[in-house]
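From the pipeline queue, job 12 of 40. The input is one protein chain; the requested action is below.

Action: predict structure.
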Amino acid sequence: MKYSCVCIDDDKMFNEILEQYIKRVDFLEFSGAYSNPIEGVMAIDKLKPDILFLDVDMPEISGFTTIDALEHKPIIIMLSSHYEHEQELLKAGAAKFVMKPVASPDHLAQIVKEVLAEQEV
């Protein structure tokens, strides 16, 4: 089974790197990346991805507001350098919090496998 993925991060370079990593993981399918979280929310509600990779600190709206704005609720994996928000984000609905950077496609695959295993419990 392939899991569709969307990325929302105001860092366009990080989105590009994550896109390349997703494309190299055989059980993931890249559905889109958005540097504008408002556009990302609208796309998620249309595309209905299985997984959302989301940043916390963005200029238009925060990761918290993004989570609240979603009608479709994918599995949310927070990717951020703001570790101080970890507990709040998990309470807000994130399945996992991961400190940036994601080191490789294998690291990304490991993160997703852990989250999927936790979701099945």
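Job complete. The radius of gyration is 13 Å.
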